[in-house]
What we know:
A hairpin with a 5-residue loop joins strand 4 and strand 5. By secondary structure, the protein is α/β, with parallel strands linked by helices. Helices cover 31% and strands 17% of the residues. The longest helix has 19 residues, at 428-446. It has helices at 7-19, 50-61, 81-85, 157-170, 187-191, 200-208, 214-219, 247-254, 268-280, 299-306, 320-333, 363-377, 428-446, and strands spanning 26-30, 36-40, 72-74, 90-92, 98-102, 125-128, 135-138, 144-150, 174-179, 222-223, 233-237, 258-259, 265-266, 288-292, 311-316, 352-359, 406-409.
Amino acid sequence: xxxxxxxxxxxxxxxxxxxxxxxxxxxxxxxxxxxxxxxxxxxxxxxxxxxxxxxxxxxxxxxxxxxxxxxxxxxxxxxxxxxxxxxxxxxxxxxxxxxxxxxxxxxxxxxxxxxxxxxxxxxxxxxxxxxxxxxxxxxxxxxxxxxxxxxxxxxxxxxxxxxxxxxxxxxxxxxxxxxxxxxxxxxxxxxxxxxxxxxxxxxxxxxxxxxxxxxxxxxxxxxxxxxxxxxxxxxxxxxxxxxxxxxxxxxxxxxxxxxxxxxxxxxxxxxxxxxxxxxxxxxxxxxxxxxxxxxxxxxxxxxxxxxxxxxxxxxxxxxxxxxxxxxxxxxxxxxxxxxxxxxxxxxxxxxxxxxxxxxxxxxxxxxxxxxxxxxxxxxxxxxxxxxxxxxxxxxxxxxxxxxxxxxxxxxxxxxxxxxxxxxxxxxxxxxxxxxxxxxxxxxxxxxxxxxxxxxxxxx
Length: 459
């Protein structure tokens, strides 16, 4: 019996035996049921070898064969060769000349490239700069986008997003915070005394129908009193609003992929991209957008981590469950086309940064987290003896490395934190003692040209 985990080797074994020296350009296509088809160039085999090799592959695969007629195909047999050979899901395997297209029902976006034009740039500002006062267009900077992602829940991810928004607003920044945790929303309640009319789930459903417009966008957000009296502002888009109806029915459609009028696919990444484009075209656009993603290996997390060009803060506690889950994710991400040998400037890994959540404030705890983090990240790092000269290889103690975490200290008083009521809001000094390292590091990544100066109102 061939198990799912062994199906790829069950294909490659007979192929390597047949070709002996070097495989031709080979594409494996695994359908949603797990069945594997091999696609070879038309001239890869003599005419009389196709059927015998197909039989060998069928016998080797067992349950995971689509049948002798489909297990081995020529490129010319494909209905749409471009759909396979130029698929955004086509990734190289660790075998010479072998690629794979995995036809998943969910979690497609983990291995895909960022969307074009992300992060979006606001329209040019008309600024009077000529001697006669003539206004000329000055290009605005693209939005700085951050995704807060945790492989497990209960790590303080949402509170950290709220605190970072507070810190940035105290530095005069305009901040939009979005609750992407549609299954377990909570950001709105942490930051808003009253919800706006609508929320993100309404945007997803209306965008699916081509009706997500400026009016809806303005009805989805509300100002957070946390920024009252600060030089910047915080606006919040919750998962649902006070007038959102039929939430479960909308949630059941929120992740549904569809085709637009031009035949292009629209799914979670495209819905989020249209939201960010709308934010960028406001009269007073935000400078920073903080996306509070849901925990776990889910479509919305995949889109927010890999497709939006965001800085990504990966939250984790130092426990076996968290590291086991991150090990699984990192091994999967290692196959992404956004991760390349030598770690060039646009490599996904430059945008990822671990966050040591709820870590005991002592050196021993910090060192233990660093050890575990470095061990997990080795699945995503280039091997020193395999990379080109000059390629980047991270050391354990390199503070610029993705595994070298920003720390948030453990304090039991955070369990009852109230950021909405000014009378119950904790002092900025206390918040800074817990989150100071994190907010300084996160702000430096999001706004590298800005030097943050902590003040009495800055956590």
